[in-house]
Structures are given as C-alpha cells and as structure tokens.
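Consider what follows.

. . .
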Amino acid sequence: MLEEIDKIGSVSQSRYEQIVAELRDVVEQQTQGQFTIGDQALEIEPIRPRGGPVTETAWSVEVSLRLLAEDIGLSVSTVKTARWTASRWPADKRREGVSFSVHKVLASIDDEVERFAAILTPPEGKTRWTVDDARRQVGVQVETPVSTREKVTAIHALAQDDKVAAAVTGDLLRRPQVAAKVAQTDKVRVVEEFTRDETVAATAATSLLRRPDVAFKAMSDDTARFQVNHAQTERSRQARDRFEDSSPVAPAVRHIDRTVEFLDLVTACHSFVAAAGRAVPGLRDRTLDEDQRTIVHENVAKVRATLDWIETAVDTGKVDMDGELARLLKGE
C-alpha cells in the first residue's frame, strides 16, 4: 500500500525525481538552442527602431526570416518568436534554469528594469517559474485556470461561438443553485423597473437603507458609497450657498473657512504620503496576484486623477469635476 502511495503514475517517487532532473537538463538545452536561433536571426535581421529608414521595410525582414526558416527546417513563426524573445533578453539577463517559454512570456513586459527583475523573483511560495505563473504576471489567459476569474475568462474564450455559448448556458441553468442566482438577478431587474421614477426610487432607497444589513452591503459598493458621499457634499454646498447669500457674517466666516480648507488639504496630502510610506516598503520581495494588481492599479489611477484635480483647484480656483474624473472616481 505504501509503495502505491509513493508512486507518481507508473514510477516511484525516486524515479520520478530522477526523470525530472534529466528533463530539466533537456529543457535547458532546448532553451539555449532557441536563444541561439534567436541570436543568429537577430544577426541576420536586427530589430530596427521605429521610424527607421524607408529601405528597412517589414517586407525585406519577412523575406530574410522566411529564407532562414526554410533553410533550417523550422516554421517562420518559430524563427520570428525566437528572434523577438532574444532581442528582449540580452545574454547576461537570461536566467539559467528558466525555460525559453517563460522567457518568451515575460518578454512582453515593456519596462526593462521590471522585466529583468521579474524573472529573478518567482511567485511567492514557489522556487521556480511556470508558464502559467508567467502568464499571470503579464495578465494573459493561463492554460490551467485556478482562480474564479481565470476560470470565467477561460469559459468566455471557449464560448465565443454562439452555439457553444447557448449550449453551455442551457447546461448551467439545469443546476439549481445557478438557476436560483439567475432568478435573483431577474428580481433585481424587476425592482429597477419599478423604481425608474425618481420619487419612488428615493423613497425605496431611504426605506431600504434603514435596514442595517442592507446599508452595510450598499456601502461596500464603491459606486454607491461615492454617490452617497457626493450627495452629502452637495447638500452641504447648497446649505453653504444659502448661508453666504443671506447671512451678514458670511464674509468673516468665509475667511476662516479658507484657512481651514488649506489646513485640511495639506493634512490630507501629508496623511496619504505617510500611509504610502508605511505600506509600500511592505511589498519588498512580494508578488501580488493578478486581481490584487488590478485593484491597486485602479486605485492608483483614482489617486493620480484626484491629485491633478487638486492642482487645478489650487492653481485656478476651479473645483468643478470633469465628467471623466467623476466616472473614474465612481469606478465606471
């Protein structure tokens, strides 16, 4: 019984490890071979910078690489891929023990510093790169999906044909839990239809937000939270406008408010810089997964847009938010 547990396929654990060691040598030889093809294809046709002389056309490059491919018995796409990958990895930046396939995937990272650093840092908890890990690093579809997002992406890719999509949908709707979730979505649509009228929608929203669980879930949605905050700000602005238009002490208060607003703005900037200074060093030697990177990039875009807005307000006194910024901050 123990012998069966120690087996992988039809071989023992020790034999499997021996096979892996032998095949890693083979893969390393193949990697060196692919880079040799790429280097020599580069010698024949170097990568030209964009905007080079007119005589250095894509047509002449295609002819040379096709001739080379035919003369060495490979497909032209294989030669082109090897040439491009070799151009992205100078000899001193190639990582021993990392397959050519991984080098090829990571070659799509545009920034050289980021690219050369990435190959030296396998994903957290792993000692070696895999092709799927490299695909996750650059944000492309993996061969063996693991996360929910990766599985959904794979299903969409396989169901591009309308007939396939219809068959898959029919099969999925036969699952009671899936059908129940679809039904729940239909209920949401019915409620949306009933609340198209602004007065009805406001009354319904007010009643629902008095329920703690509903309010908590609603505030977990970035767009809903932004709209509530925006409504509160707008209400305060309207009250302030009425005060400034009707109160005799408004000029004196206005001077005080401007001083407070300046201090609030400086404090907000200082708090952000201090918080980033504490959080960013914690990313050292860590690799975020695709979902985490996406969330961070989205929030960095919001921060960058907000900083531009602050600079415009400080320099010009105009605080109106353009449509693109409003949509970005709402998460649209």
